[in-house]
Amino acid sequence: MDPWAGAVTEEGDGVGILLEVSPGSRRGASVTGYNPWRRRVQCTVSAPPRGGKANRDVVELMADVLSVPASAVTLSAGAASREKRIHVQNLMEDEALARLHTAAESHSSRS
């Protein structure tokens, strides 16, 4: 079983993904790995955590990483927290996991 599966669950018409977000990154937006203790996908965004800017960056990052339109990604919990939950419509769990892994591997090869 994929250890990242704890952060991705099928729900309704898509998947829910648990995130741990670090806003204000100088390196830009990316999926950086997985936190096994919190069971969350780790990501960074360049926007500061003010006025919903970081949340908008999270939605855009996840849409890009998961190859879905931004309109398919909804922040469902954690608007004022680093720990967030998103819902992605029309995506299966195995597809989401594969795309998240690819993004994290791409990030680690650039670092």
Produce the secondary structure layout.
Elements: E1 8-11, E2 14-22, E3 30-35, E4 40-44, H1 53-66, E5 73-77, E6 83-89, H2 93-110
Parallel strand pairs: 2-4
Antiparallel strand pairs: 1-2, 2-6, 3-4, 5-6
Question: What's the name of the CATH homologous superfamily?
Answer: YggU-like
- CATH class, named Alpha Beta
Number of domains: 1
Overall pLDDT score: 94
CATH topology: Conserved Hypothetical Protein Mth637, Chain: A
Tell me roughly what share of residues is in helical segments.
Answer: 25-40%
**Strand tally:** 6
Helix-strand pattern:
EEEEHEEH
Largest sheet: 6 strands, mixed
Q: Distance N terminus to C terminus?
A: 27 Å
Question: Radius of gyration, Cα only, in angstroms?
Answer: 13 Å
Low-confidence stretches: none
| Total DSSP helices | 2
CATH architecture label name = 2-Layer Sandwich
| Beta fraction | 25-35%
Shape descriptor reads: globular
What would you call the structural class? alpha+beta
Structure write-up:
The protein has a single domain, classed as YggU-like (Conserved Hypothetical Protein Mth637, Chain: A). Helix content is 29%, strand content 32%. It has two helices and six strands, in the order E-E-E-E-H-E-E-H. The longest helix has 18 residues.
Descriptive key words:
single chain, 111 residues, alpha+beta, Conserved Hypothetical Protein Mth637, Chain: A, six-stranded mixed sheet, 2 helices, 6 strands
Task: Give the structure's gist in a few sentences.
The protein is 29% helix and 32% strand. The protein has 111 residues and is of the alpha+beta class. The N and C termini lie far apart (27 Å).
